[in-house]
Amino acid sequence: MSVVWGVPYLLIKVAVRHLEPAVVVEGRTAIGALVLLPLALRRGQLRPLLSSWKPLLAYTVAELAIPWLLLSDAERRLPSSLSGLLVSTVPLIGVVLAALSGHQDRIDAKGILGLLVGLIGVGVLLGLDVGRGDLGSVGEVGVVAIGYATGPLLVSRYMHHLSSLALAAVTMALVAVGYLPFAIWQLPSKAPPGTAIASIVVLGVVCSALAFVAFFELIKEIGSTRATIITYVNPAIAVVLGVVWLGEPFKLATGIGFVLILGGSWVSTASGRGETRDTPRVGGTRPAPDE
């Protein structure tokens, strides 16, 4: 998951050079839905989702509809590596949201220390690596991080009993339908280059369809807060790809902020890593020892 969701920052950066953000979101969600919906229909897994339509809709808005548009828009101005680093604050936000919502015990002293260290890392990035003209884009990525932290909580609390395949298929289908009018309106006048098209296809098949099925299973297995720990590695992948493939600069502030944010995230979520998962598997069963 860490590797698969470290790649989208590069792909989005390539795509938005030639396509509007709404078109990028439409492309990846439509492809993802086309891949997964037939499988979910064949297995008869869609009907159970009707009883959880409210949290399903809330999750779709918090995790996909808003964040994917804002991230695509922000990356028109921000380096993909910086976007990945800012999104690595998700575990910090997740700890706070989980505590405020009663999803876990109150944050202890170690958790508070981790949050402070992580926030210092964000401050380093904003103070040394972000120009004044980029603050609006940084704010967009901040909303993205809040959405990414909120989504797993909703799945863990309200939808852990539902099929991961059906959840991924329906959420992407809903976003694809919602963005279709805007994407048609913003279609480019000429066909985009092959690199942009390839980026959308990989975003849809690998980073959306396959990734979300795996992510839902991860949430069910280890809980929402611990599942967001995948963002420990995401920014490292994003930074490496941005520097190597796009020629983005690697500044001292990038390295310092990276270490502080990930260190703070590690400390703030450390208390939950040794505990049992907080949600049951699908159907409420546990795997046999030899599974």
A few lines on this structure:
The chain has 291 residues and is an all-alpha fold.
Biggest sheet architecture: none
- Averaged pLDDT: 82
Helix run count: 12
Task: State the order of secondary-structure elements, H for helix, E for strand.
Answer: HHHHHHHHHHHH
State the helicity in percent bands.
55-70%
- Uncertain segments are 273-291
Rg to the nearest angstrom?
19 Å
How many β strands by DSSP?
Answer: 0
Overall structural class, as computed from helix and strand content, comes to mainly alpha
Shape: globular
How many structural domains in the coordinates? 1
Ends: how far apart?
21 Å
> Approximately what portion of the residues adopt beta-strand conformation?
under 5%
Tell me what the structure shows.
The chain has 291 residues and is an all-alpha fold. It has one domain. It is built from twelve helices and no strands. Helix 1 runs antiparallel to helix 9, helix 4 (80-87) runs antiparallel to helix 11 and helix 5 (90-100) packs across helix 7. It is globular. The two termini are 21 Å apart. Mean pLDDT is 82; it is low at 273-291.
Fold blueprint:
Elements: H1 8-15, H2 21-42, H3 53-74, H4 80-87, H5 90-100, H6 109-128, H7 135-158, H8 164-185, H9 194-222, H10 224-227, H11 234-246, H12 252-268
Helix pairs in contact: 1-4, 1-9, 2-3, 2-8, 2-9, 3-7, 3-8, 4-11, 5-7, 5-12, 6-12, 8-9
